[in-house]
Amino acid sequence: MAEVITMPRLSDTMTEGKVAKWHKNVGDKVKEGDILAEIETDKAVQDFESEINGTLLYIGVEEGSAAAVDSVLAIIGNEGEDISGLTGGAAAPAAGGSEEKKSEEESKTENNATSVEQTTAEVPAGVEIITMPRLSDTMTEGKVAKWHKNVGDTVKEGDLLAEIETDKAVQDFESEFNGVLLKQGVEEGGAAPVDSVLAIIGPEGTDISAVGAPKAAAQSPEKPAEQKTEAKAEEKAAPAVNSTSSDRVAISPLAKKMAQDKGVDINSVNGSGENGRIVKKDIENYQPSQAQAQPAASAPAAAQVALSFVQGEDTETPNSQVRNIIAKRLAESKFSAPHYYLMVEINMDKAIEARKEINSLPDTKISFNDMIIKATAVALRKHPQVNSSWAGDKVIHRGNINVGVAVAIPDGLVVPVLKNTDQMNYTQISAAVKDMATRAKNKGLKANEMEGSTFSVSNLGMFGIETFTSIINQPNSAILSVGAIIEKPIVKNGQIVVGNIMKLSLACDHRVVDGATGAQFLQTLKTYLESPLTLLL
């Protein structure tokens, strides 16, 4: 009698296993205790032994392939035994069983989200079903951070429907259709998988009862009316300009690119587009005098709200999706990449003089961080191994130098990316960093602005931290930690003088960057910062 061997659960967290190697082939004799295969779990590779005697009649998972726990791994029986009924009827139920388990788990996080299949059976004329968009390559579900339209509101193409929180950022989601919002498929604060029903738009009064049962509203019936009133009041009170007091800067992609190229601070530009949106002509016609007419740009509210301490009372704060992903990625990096650290001290005297001269130019203001980012990008040209990534059985040497800049946000940390940083000048780097940092703190970054980094920089110098180490931002192989510039006594030409010293710490993935390679990179970076003119060579 043939026996079906299923994929074993070899750890508490294992959901699927990968067959790293088969030790038996179809037709081979198998004895109890023989190693059938090597199974790769989420934690290790383990030998899997047979518990029965017989002949290996069927292999359900090819070498190098993965399968869910409890799916058919192999069939063992008597030589020549007919197993057509098992391969046709056993594998399918096993897969079906795993699918049922999977669907049960997913249903817990979907908040009863309506699937597209449930709604497309009877869609009235003129009605459009809006699904949860996939806003990043790694996104599997989205959370509605805020609805900008309520059921019954008129929606035009280009109107902001909602703010969607992905695993990387919170992004605006605009409507592609005209009509009336007939249904919100996901309540505010709720999450749903990609491609499930987010909203339904159509002609006013259309009966969509056949399309799917409406979601239970997350707000009381009175609240939408109150929100409409408040929104109208805010619109009347707020001028139609892109002032720095707004939560985020509204700017077209083309205008944003032009501002970066010209080194224009978008916070100082008045937008002439709809609702104060900055467009191409605003950047073309921008005059520095505009900045003087506006109040100084205040730092946007980004600090996490301080929790009040109550003696003897424990409190809880639910994790946002962004914080959960950050925690997962940092843990994966720390425990998968063998970190080691290199430290060096930099004499910043000449860098301070160079910055002072640069900032004396009209309409120019750069920071030490901008200078460090530029020097780092140029140093990476000379040390491409540091600009590489580990990819299992190979190392990928990146063709572009894209420096990620760590930015603290209320939910934790994000790393917006400066693409082709080595080709940018100080002014462009300064404008890009200010723009991305401002939008990051207000959850205004797009997912593609946080992808593709090849190296990262984290700076805590503004907090007076002299030195620290960072966790590598995978798939990067290194991250630079920048400390504060501190006045210290140093020996110069045999004399003890006061010098401006900054400490740098480089965390490296030893699988890619050897100690000597990391040290040589820091030597080059030290030269560029201590003698800024060498960047021109």
TrEMBL record:
Identify the stretch(es) annotated as Disordered: 84-118, 212-248
Compositional bias (Basic and acidic residues): 98-109, 223-237
**Enzyme Commission number(s) of this protein:** 2.3.1.-
Q: Does the keyword Ligase apply?
A: no
Taxonomically, the superkingdom here is: Bacteria
Return the Pfam families for the record: 2-oxoacid_dh, Biotin_lipoyl, E3_binding
- Would the keyword Acyltransferase be found if you checked this record's keyword annotation? yes
The protein, known as: Dihydrolipoamide acetyltransferase component of pyruvate dehydrogenase complex
